[in-house]
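Entry 14. Ran structure prediction on the chain below.
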Amino acid sequence: MNRSHFFSKRVQFSIAASRDWTCILRRFVALASLLFLTLSGNVDLACAQSLPENLPASGVALHDSPNPLRFFDVTGRNSAIFGHQNGQFEAWIYPIKLLHNFRLEFLEEGQPETVRGESLLREIVTRPESTTLVYVYPNFTVREILWAPLQSPALVIYFEVDCAQPLDITAAFVPDFKPMWPASFGGQHSSWIADQKAFALTDATEHATALVGSPAVSSYTQFTDHQLASGETILRLHFTAGQNRAPLVMTLDMDSSAAAIAAYRDVLSRSATLFEERVVHHQGFLSRTLSFESPDAQLNEAFLWSKLTLDSGWVCHPRHGCGLVAGYGPSGSGERPGFAWWFGGDAMMSSWALEDVGDLDGARQALRFLKGLQRDDGKMLHEMTQSVDLLDWFGKFHYAYYHADSTPMYLYSLGQYWSRTGDANFLDEFWPSLRKAYAYCLSTVTPEDGLMDNTRAGLAAVEVGVLRGKVVKDIYLEGFWVGALEAVQRMAAAKGDASLADDAAQRAAKARASLSKNWWDPDRHVFTFGLTADGQRTDLVGVWPSVLLALSDQMNAPQATAAASAFADPRIATDWGARWLANDHPLYDPLSYNNGTAWPFMSGFAAWAQYRHGLPLSAFSLWSSVALLTGLSSPGAVPELMNGDRDLAGEFAVPHQLFSSDGVLLPAVRGVLGLETQGPASTPDHPPQISFAPSLPADWHFLRFGNYSIGRGHLAGEVLQQPSQTILRLKYEDGSPVLATLAPSVPAASRVKAVSIDGKPVKFSLHDFGRFVRVNVAPFVVRPSTQVTLTVDYDGGIGIVPPEPHPQPGERSSALKILRVESNTQTPKCLVRLAVAGLAGHSYALSLVSTLGNLQASGLVMRKEGADYMLQIPFETAGSESLYLNREVCVN
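Output, structure tokens:
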């Protein structure tokens, strides 16, 4: 069984939204119901139970068999459900945990015993707007549709019941009414509100109040006192024979019980409209954001759901507005649901991905939210609990600003947004904040080397474990600092602030020189992790330098390429991502948070860096290994971290982590598609600049995209690959003209015959990377509503198909790793030389694509199948079959 086990068995996608008289009638009924409730002050049960016969849908769905080890969630801007696929969940209306262990039991009329829901659960249907749990029994089918209104502080469950006999559904749960950690309440208690058919949960102040109830309630737990029940509380809902529908609603108001009751009645009366608003939101998001279509359906699906994962991360605060949280997971017996807090660094990385998929408004809002929380000295927020209003978060607690990387990351993020949009108003709005953040960073810089000091600025790469305190400067932080300086230089130049632009340029050059000289290990050809207090270089090698290599445009090229190559080494690269620390180091621990596990977001940086530095074979293997983690622990989501030795999510890893999905999106757009913006051109009309330099696997015949946002317009395009020809097409809609650089690639050792644009020959230059040849043509202007076609004709060439790891759950890493590829058309005896690594005693099939006849590999079996060759690469037996060995292969 391969990774496809974790993907949907069926995927449907349709953006068409129905607009008919039924929709209008639903709106009218909802408004009439609200008016009646307002006038009467009581719940009209018949009206509240009136649900649409067919719920609208966004058009995207995952259908899975339930697995109790997997997580599911339902999220809104003010509420969420976090559960496991045994049917049990906890409910949050921020910042309060209302209840946990919510579960169902079923009792048919005439039967003596109830049947527990987990024994009947047959299917989990995940949609952007809802999660449906399907319970099946010989005499009934029940669909429990869980969803959160997009904006309202509420949760709703729709029960769709088809039963042959009258049926009672018991909803059992343990009430909590506890605020998110580290805040606390005292004196929690509950009561029954008969005319609302709902439990009220509150505390001793009786201000904050939640309601949990349904118009279909037929009986409920009777309390002997007002204290919260120590065990389960139940609500029993009655359904007659036939087809039935009923809602169960949870609401919260932080001020009074009267307001909570009003909110409860409002949601009951408007639930159909609220559900439709949610569906329309997702339809709009899908239709206006970037599409990605390749020959690999699993990778396409991973891209689609990674977009949706980012959009699920918005949480709103009444005073600070809406921002992106880090991710979601169950709190269990505690009061912290994964990392459902606002994290500065996580949100900023996600803002880059939002820009790449075309949600520019969302990216700007994420940055604006953080700008509002900037400290007076310019330092940016690291994290903020949703219980911020219930305690002295910025005073008595030390977490809010204790990270160093958030502030330079903010500067880089501002540069990313400006480069994408060229928005002068954005630059004006954020300029005072930018200057403050820049000044703060300078206050932590050591003049001698121009680098930020962790002891002054705070934590960066390491939060816990044996590596904490090992260095005073780490390369993770310095990578963001170099990226920030290069971004500030560009923005200051655009702003006309020559002094700041010059200062940033000089500081960037000094920082890069310091890293190239003092942090470079010439023996292992890698950048080290950091410097100790006495200025000595550490011997820690891992994935940390990938930030520097992905973000900086100007690092020493030979060093950068060599350092990025190291991420393919099996001591760092696994079949599910890149390890923080190489597994041959004494401090390596495959379970450790910071010194051994493999994090998808850092693996995304590593793949991005490899694509940037001309290493698409190892980059694709790394990127695809992260993308195929989608759905591993939670439908559509990527877990926070992976075990360093086995294909297994970390024991305490958050199952739905937003910036893990960044590791899918960023390399896909900036690497596979090769789409990057460089800000407005320096020409008098200042058109936005775009480069399109795709890097497709040799066996992909096409790659298509649409809705790539740049400036005020959108690009669509495709790549067509066949032996002897590569075609790039680019179409631009709306906005003003763009200055485009198209740079297709052809296989290693190819001989380019001709390059044309729209059928007319053009001059070109070649950059031979050894692994492939990049064809460069001069930038040209693409005007709105026009399509440009660039065609490259070539002879020969050897396209190497990158290995795509498909590990089984719990397995160790075993896939072939491509370490290095060199080509030399002047040496027929070895046209292409590969350095590869594989497990001792194993033999691997490597696919090659070429029109050349009679390809051979000295001493190895090569089988020809049309334009494809299959090369068999064996590795000799060694003392341990888990040992990776290196060997070279010569193709002639």
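The chain has 16 helices and 51 strands. Will compare against last week's run tomorrow.
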